[in-house]
Amino acid sequence: FGLYIYGVVLKELQNTPSASSTTTKIRPSSSVHHAQDIVPPPSPHSILLQSILQFPYNWSAWLDLSELCVQDSTIHSDVEEVLRPILGHWMYHFFCVHLFLENQVNENAIMVMEKLIHGTTATDTIDHETNGGAGGGEILSTTGMFVQSPYIQSQLAVAHYNLRDFDEAQRHFIALSERDSLRLDQMDIYSNILYVKEDRVSLSQLAHRAVKIDKYRPETCCIVGNYYSLKAQHEKAVQYFQRALKLDRSYLSAWTLMGHEYVEMKNTAAAIEAYRRAVDINERDYRAWYGLGQTYEILNMLFYALFYFNKVSFFTFFYWVGVHFLEL
C-alpha cells in the first residue's frame, strides 16, 4: 500500500501544472555536479503497476491506473507487458470492463462481463483481432464467479444504456433494484432511462424511494431533478441539479443535465457554462459535447456547432483505437 500511495502522489504531481516549475526552483544551481546527481522520479504508472502486482485486490490502484491509461495512450504497451503475469486474474477483467466503459467501447465491456457471469471453458477464447485488440487470444480463467454480483449487473446496465439499448438496460436496473432495494449507485442513470421513455409513474416511484433512502446523495438529487424535468418544471429541476453539485462539484451528470434544462429554458449562456464544466471534468462525455453543439446551433453559430458535433463523432466512434492493447 506504500507503493500505491507513492503512485497516487506521483500522479497528482504529474497533473499539477506548476509541478515542473516548482521542481526547477528547488534544484541546486551552485554546482553542475549536484544537478547531474538528481534522478528524475519514476513514472506514476510504473509504481502503480508494482503495487498491483504485489496486491491485485486494491481496486483503487486499478482505478488510478485506468485514469492514466485514458490520459496517455503511449503507456499501453508498458501496462500490457507488466500485467502479463496476471492476465487471468478476475481483477484484471474488472479493470478491462472499467476502461472499456470509460472509452465507450461498450460491446467489449459487455462481452467480458458476460464471460465473468457465465464462465468459460478451456476452449473459449476471445479473438482480439475482431474486438479491438492486436491479435491473439487469452483464456478467461474465471468460471462464473460473479453470477450474483451487483457491481457487474450495474455495469452491464450502464453499457447497454451507453448503447441506447434502453429496454435491456432497464431490465438490468429492475433486477438490481430487486436484489438491493437500498442501492443508489447508478440509479441516476436508471432515472435517465425512465425520463427518455417518459415513464412518469416509475420515475416518481424511484424518486420517492431514493429520497427515503438518502435525500443528501447527489444521485437522489439527479433523480428528483429528472422527475421535475419530465413534468416540465425546469426551474425546480435546476434547483435539484444545483443541490447535487453542492454535494459533489465534480458530479458529471448534474452538470450535463442542468445544461439540458437551461436549453429548455432558453438560457443559452448558462447552458454553455454547464456543458463546459462537464467536459472540463470528463472530456469523453459526448453528451456534453453534443449539448454544446446543439446550443450553438440554436444561436445560429453553425461553425461552432459543427466543431462540437465533430467532437461527438470522435469520442463515440474512434476512441476504441486507444485501448487496443487490452488482452482479454
How would you characterize the overall build of this protein?
The protein is mainly alpha-helical. The chain is 67% helix and 0% strand. The protein has 18 helices and no strands. The chain has helices at 2-15, 19-26, 32-37, 44-54, 59-71, 76-82, 90-102, 106-118, 150-162, 166-179, 187-196, 200-213, 218-230, 234-247, 252-264, 268-281, 286-298, 302-317. The longest helix has 16 residues, at 302-317. The two termini are 27 Å apart.
Task: Quickly describe the structure.
The chain is mainly α and 328 residues long. It has 18 helices and no strands.
Please give the count of helices.
18
Largest sheet: none
> Please, what is the average pLDDT?
81
Radius of gyration: 22 Å
Order of helices and strands: HHHHHHHHHHHHHHHHHH
Task: Bin the strand percentage.
Answer: under 5%
Number of strands: 0
- The secondary-structure class comes to mainly alpha
Unreliable runs: 19-33, 121-142, 317-328
**Distance between the first and last residues' Cα:** 27 Å
- Overall, the morphology is globular
Question: What is the helix content?
Answer: 55-70%
Question: Which helices and strands appear, and what pairs or packs with what?
Answer:
Blueprint: H1 2-15, H2 19-26, H3 32-37, H4 44-54, H5 59-71, H6 76-82, H7 90-102, H8 106-118, H9 150-162, H10 166-179, H11 187-196, H12 200-213, H13 218-230, H14 234-247, H15 252-264, H16 268-281, H17 286-298, H18 302-317
Helix pairs in contact: 1-4, 4-5, 5-7, 7-8, 8-9, 9-10, 10-11, 11-12, 11-13, 12-13, 13-14, 13-15, 14-15, 15-16, 15-17, 16-17, 17-18
